[in-house]
Write a structure and sequence with these properties.
Elements lengths: L7 H4 L5 H22 L1 H36 L9 H8 L4 E4 L8 E6 L9 E6 L5 E7 L5
Antiparallel strand pairs: 1-2, 2-3, 3-4
Length: about 150
């Protein structure tokens, strides 16, 4: 019999210890399930993020491979094969950075290629195009040695 004024725990005082542990565990699990159901959208986003990580890694790997191909072209002095922005896009993909520098005399657009994840200390290739999209100049900056 439950008396008014008795505490919550005193209700279970007559139960055996093992049964009380099971009831307590069920209550805790219900609490966690409720919390999990409340945050299903966040959990779903985290799962989607995990799946996208594989796609992101393969994209970065492909971009780095294209950059290495560009470095090979630069180092073997074969840049004359590529004369327009379209040539570079087709052969090496999108640059990391594009800037309109139309205030300069010889060129209007600057493109930067480098490794995707190496922000500092990476080799870089700068391409300078005129307003028509033709290559005017290029510059190779070796990796910084630390």
């Amino acid at each position: 019999m439950i008396r008014i004024g008795d505490g919550f725990l005193s209700t279970f005082a007559g139960l055996k210890g093992n049964l009380m542990k099971k009831i307590f565990l069920v209550m805790v699990m219900l609490c966690f399930c409720g919390c999990a159901l409340r945050h299903t959208s966040e959990i779903g986003r985290l799962q989607e993020y995990g799946r996208n990580m594989d796609e992101q890694k393969s994209y970065v790997k492909a971009q780095d491979k294209k950059f290495e191909e560009l470095l090979k072209v630069v180092k073997t002095d074969q840049m004359s094969k590529y004369t327009t922005q379209a040539d570079f896009l087709k052969a090496f993909g999108e640059p990391i950075f594009v800037k309109d520098v139309s205030g300069k005399k010889d060129y209007a657009i600057l493109w930067l290629y480098r490794y995707d994840e190496k922000l500092f200390g990476s080799e870089k290739v700068y391409l300078y195009f005129d307003s028509a999209g033709s290559l005017v100049a290029w510059e190779h900056v070796p990796a910084e040695k630390r």
